[in-house]
Amino acid sequence: MTAAGASERTYPVQISVEGFGDRVASRVADRESQLVLGLDPDPALLWPGAIEGVGSAGDSLAPPAARAALAVAAHCELAIDAVREHCVAVKLQVACFERLGAPGWSALAEVAERARERGLLVLADGKRGDIDVSAAAYAQAFLGETETPFGLVDGLGVDALTLNPLLGVDSLTPLVQCARGRHRGVFVLVRTSNAGAADVQELGLAGGGTVSERLARIVAELGAPGTGAAGLADVGAVVGATAPHLLQTLRDQMPHAVFLLPGVGAQGGRVQDLEPAFAPGPGGGLLAVSRGIVNAHQLTGGPPAVAAEREAARLRALVWKLAS
Amino acid sequence: MTAAGASERTYPVQISVEGFGDRVASRVADRESQLVLGLDPDPALLWPGAIEGVGSAGDSLAPPAARAALAVAAHCELAIDAVREHCVAVKLQVACFERLGAPGWSALAEVAERARERGLLVLADGKRGDIDVSAAAYAQAFLGETETPFGLVDGLGVDALTLNPLLGVDSLTPLVQCARGRHRGVFVLVRTSNAGAADVQELGLAGGGTVSERLARIVAELGAPGTGAAGLADVGAVVGATAPHLLQTLRDQMPHAVFLLPGVGAQGGRVQDLEPAFAPGPGGGLLAVSRGIVNAHQLTGGPPAVAAEREAARLRALVWKLAS
């Protein structure tokens, strides 16, 4: 490690000169894209090239978890390389890596690093939420670092992490603070893309509004001190593309939040319904598409990389036009 | 692997003859304890014996994460051995392992295995929650196994996992089904132990009741088909010991749920307020205590293991008497 590296560790707050909202705005402008490649690797649906690579390594005596993790990482890198020119970020579904145990976590770190090297923002979709002391531990795992008797242990170092706010403001604060200090961000679940979202998030409150609207207010309040020159905050919101009727209301309540928008494609959401997300500007919404891109070849035929590239190009153009 | 082992893998459903509720009831009766050792290992607060062990291994060139994970595992094993005779289960705070990356996940698996060998139930406190396909991936990671082109990859194999229900019933179902098929369980957050719980969970609903009460109804409905002979279901509830005024109401709404009760000790909850949890019987409540046991020596002085053992014995007797 260089002396400069050691010095950066002593003052870990200054990684970037811009806050997360400004970073999103400038990346979106530079790359002319709001598209986020969602990576939810299913070991049963990997691109053939990923499996062949592991097979030909001659390492057939390694445990299944280690080999599967190598293949998962190779699959993600192939997908990233196929669509990177059309994307501004990747979103890694942590569950899909955790099911492969420790080798899966290594694959998660490797994929995050590869995406970062290719100029993409890295979002970890972990939907974490816990009481303060445990929330601080998740902050260390994903956004910060951990002091140990044996030296500092770096976390994953992602640009943003998705959070579940059911435990309230004091469960979010340690993560927001850690992210803000490092010019990173968080995306808080406000209205998810699944049908079951209605069970709890759309419950009407005695004081008016819904649970989602209450969550939106929390997001707006937490993000206010972290709003940058571009008008975007470092506390974003997950708002499913499957509930377009709620989008305008939630945008009104969270005027500066970056909306992370899952649910287009496999889950039935449509890009053309997402216009309110972009009220603060082109960086106001990030469209996260996983299966719709990575499994595009299942609909179109042909090599997976070609089908993915074509679908990513289509989605990117569609969103860019809508947001401009 | 033996032929019998291979055969078990082909039919993974039959691991135990009893459902999770019955397993909890019989373990509590056998061990005469409702005490759950919470393990939230902080690398800055490990028991001295754990650090010495790693130091003396002469492996000082290993990366900090690997050494810290060894020390964390050693710490957890020392704590388990100090208090095991007083406990029925351990609760592993997943965040504290994830902050050490892949070596941390290996430590998590090792600690789970050691606790299981000592006859303790293993609860993973991950508070996971995601849309159906990702919930299924978390089920594979913690409760089941994953098919890959390279063979089956076993998950952590814990007895139960804590879940966050903000995403609704369809986000819980894959985990409940996976757990039920393996005679394992889940604990759904209903009313957490932190002050911020009031921000969302205690919101009053237009139709009457609170968000927590709505969550309680979901727990009761999901658990009904998994209620065993002892009157306990395989869908339990996390109910903080810090809100005793809610305990009777929530018990009325979830008559068969095992209550996982955090919040005694460091967070201010008191054992004597927990009586309603035990209405279904001695297995109706599990008292999870982390810092109150593991850091007991900070209050009492003396060796950590001795202080922990004394505090665990005290808490175990207090709860057992209350529940009998």
Please outline what is shown here.
Two copies of one chain form a homodimer. The first copy, chain A, is an alpha/beta fold and 324 residues long.
Q: How would you describe this protein?
A:
The structure is a homodimer of 324-residue chains. Chain A has 14 helices and 10 strands. Chain A is an alpha/beta fold. In chain A, the strands form 2 sheets. In chain A, strands 1-2-3-6-7-8-9-10 form an 8-stranded parallel barrel, surrounded by 7 helices. Chain A has a two-stranded antiparallel sheet with strand order 4-5. Chain A is globular, with a radius of gyration of 19 Å. At the A-B interface, helix 4, helix 5, helix 6, strand 3 and helix 7 of A face helix 4, helix 5, helix 6, strand 3 and helix 7 of B.
Q: Work out the number of β strands of chain A.
A: 10
* Mean of pLDDT of chain A: 93
Radius of gyration of chain A: 19 Å
- The CATH fourth-level homologous superfamily of chain A: Aldolase class I
CATH architecture of chain A: Alpha-Beta Barrel
Low-confidence region ranges of chain A:
1-16
Name the structural class of chain A.
alpha/beta
The figure for the number of domains of chain A is 1
CATH class of chain A reads Alpha Beta
- Percent helix among the residues of chain A? 40-55%
Query: Major sheet of chain A: size, sense and barrel closure?
Result: 8 strands, parallel, barrel
Based on the model shown, name its key terms.
alpha/beta, two-stranded antiparallel ribbon, 324 residues, homodimer, 8-stranded parallel beta barrel, globular, TIM Barrel
